[in-house]
Amino acid sequence: MDDFTPKRLTLFMGHYGSGKTNLAFNFARMLKRQGKCVTIADLDIVNPYFRTKDSQKELEEDGISLIVSKYANSNVDLPSMSAQTYALIDSRSEYGVLDIGGDDRGALALGRYADDILAENDYDAFFVVNRARPLTQTVEQAVSIGMEIMSACRMGFTGVVNNSNIGDDTTAEYVRDSIGWAKSVADALSVRLVCTTVMRGLKLEGAVPVDLRRYEWQK
């Protein structure tokens, strides 16, 4: 982690079930451990599987602020975003972690902030991929989803995060085997493979280059 300098804004985007919300949650906790003032903005407003709202108590205990639609954890599905999100984008000082909705429909929510984010130019936009999920099991499928997301949010990716896993059945061999696939996805999108995430306790020493192990996926 010592060689990694986070941008002020870090965006996690990906298809449903890719694990981007868990990554956003743990990435924010990593920034907080580094002594930074951190806020998570949950823009996952279209039929999400998991929401940061579900972990609000844990985030508050860690001193991490949460911005979420007032309709989170309800049966109301409206693209309503808090004015706090605009304030976070305009802050220029507070670190923001943005959890973007799955596929191109969810990414539309990000589009309204794209001009300001691009103007500041202090961001990373990570495309989270999970080879185990339907519709992203081949390089071609994952790239197609990625292109749809970029078109919808009017921003390009700065990197790919390989979060390939099959839950508790994930093995080191499974993760190792997914790296070449993820690298091909990144190459096709003309960005770098930023890292391959691993479940805490899964040992990959000697198998995965150090620069691909910056983040740790926690259950």
Task: Supply database-style keywords.
219 residues, alpha/beta, Rossmann fold, 7-stranded parallel beta sheet, 7 helices, 7 strands, 17% strand
Give an account of the 3D structure:
It is a single chain. This protein has 219 residues and is α/β, with parallel strands linked by helices. The protein has a single domain, classed as P-loop containing nucleotide triphosphate hydrolases (Rossmann fold, 3-Layer(aba) Sandwich), CATH 3.40.50. Helices cover 35% and strands 17% of the residues. Strands 3-2-4-1-5-6-7 form a seven-stranded parallel sheet, sandwiched between helices. It is globular, with a radius of gyration of 16 Å. The C terminus is likely disordered.
Short structural description:
This protein has helices at residues 20-33, 56-61, 83-91, 103-111, 114-120, 139-153, 172-188; strands at 9-14, 38-43, 65-68, 95-100, 123-129, 159-162, 192-196. With 219 residues, the chain is an alpha/beta fold.
Detail the poorly predicted runs: 72-79, 206-219
Q: Structurally, how many domains make up the residues?
A: 1
What value does the average pLDDT take? Answer: 82
Cα radius of gyration in angstroms: 16 Å
Tell me the name of the CATH class: Alpha Beta
Q: How many H/I helices?
A: 7
Query: Based on CA inertia axes, which overall geometry fits?
Result: globular
**Spatial order of the strands forming the largest sheet:** 3-2-4-1-5-6-7
Strand elements, count: 7
Fourth-tier CATH superfamily name:
P-loop containing nucleotide triphosphate hydrolases
The CATH level-2 architecture is identified as: 3-Layer(aba) Sandwich
N-to-C terminal Cα separation, in Å?
A: 20 Å
Fraction of residues in H or I helices: 25-40%
Percentage of residues in strands: 15-25%
Question: Which fold name is given in CATH as the topology?
Answer: Rossmann fold
Helix-strand category:
alpha/beta
Main sheet overview: 7 strands, parallel
The ordered H/E elements are EHEHEHEHHEHEHE
